[in-house]
Amino acid sequence: MTDPGLFSAPQTPPPGCPAHADAVRLGGLEYQQTPSQMYRALRRDHGAVAPVLLDGDIPAWLVLGYHEVAQVTSHDELFARDSRRWNQWDNIPPDWPLMPFVGYQPSVLFTEGEEHRRRAGVITEALSGVDQFELARDCELIADELIARFAGSGQAELMTSYAHALPMRAVVQMCGMPISGADTQQLVDDLRISLDAAEGDDPVAAYGRVGERLVRLVQDKRADPGKDVTSRMVLHPAGLSDEEIVQDLISVIAAAQQPTANWICNALRLLLTDERFELSVSGGRVSVGEALNEVLWLDTPTQNFIGRWAVRDTQLGGRQIRAGDCLVLGLAAANTDPGLWPEGHVGAENAAHLSFSNGEHRCPYPAPLLADVMARTAVETLLERLPDLVLAVDPRTLTWRSSIWMRGLTTLPVRFTPVDG
């Protein structure tokens, strides 16, 4: 999903470019490892709204300012979610890598107005039926099982064996799927490819397989409903069709799995590398909470979100936005906006970040609370079971995944005193 070259200005803008000749390509190794530097450069050169180029040099606007992101997400009448408004569709090939993000689907993500409120209401009520204490208990049981697999070895790679595996198992259990097996693992792999494709992956094909698997799940729950999120969506009086439920389940599962996994891992990295947490990390519930919140400010799992589309010609951050222009929400950039933190110190003690977005299309309640339960339980349980856990490599050698959308490590190797059974 990323441009292999360093971020740089093209020689000439593509036809119909809403931006400028100095538009910046989003991608490249330098961006992947230190995106904050790119955000600073974009602010310096362009202000709160910067002209950028997506894969294939498709033009868009990256909204960097905290107040500008809040403005976009609070005014659906100006910046709407239906991607069919995009004025660049004539330039988009059918196999475009970002198609899973922007290709219109009958999903809650692309609905607007009363239809969005109807669909989001079903999701909200289905998620509200999840008992947070039971979820915490289930996550602790999952954590214990995962830890037991590597506890005796004294070493582990936590991204694969723990951080990604725990929320995956928790969310599929919430949705009424088997918590293990090849079928479930294939679904998780396809979700990863859809959201964060590596070289050689086919995100469009993977997205299609995700839909096929969830069609079978919805059909199973119509025939035999249970006490799970999918069954509550099926039985909801709003009467969503199978297709609507499938599309909305994709949104729920994708939002719950990979971002939560990266939230867990980014928090563990902070706890294991920042000297502020050294004395209280072992079983330190207060510091775990502080680390989780600080990550949402400084290393939020969802760095950028595509997108919103201008309903009509308007202005934003001093820029002239044309009807149909695409706006990418720079959530990570907004959270570290120097206008918000003029002295350069991000106040991680508060929760006014935009990591769960804002406005009517933000993550529906109580999704952020459920994600917090999963992340907090995962981190606390790991530190309690393996109290002398330390990073197994020089922190400077850790690398980030090659994605402009998600912020997560490629690996997190650790060592500890082996624990029997």
UniProtKB/TrEMBL annotation:
InterPro entries: Cyt_P450_B (IPR002397), Cyt_P450_sf (IPR036396)
Domain of life assignment: Bacteria
GO function terms (MF aspect): heme binding; iron ion binding; monooxygenase activity; oxidoreductase activity, acting on paired donors, with incorporation or reduction of molecular oxygen
Protein family membership: Belongs to the cytochrome P450 family.
Protein name as it appears in the record: Cytochrome P450
Provenance organism: Streptomyces seoulensis
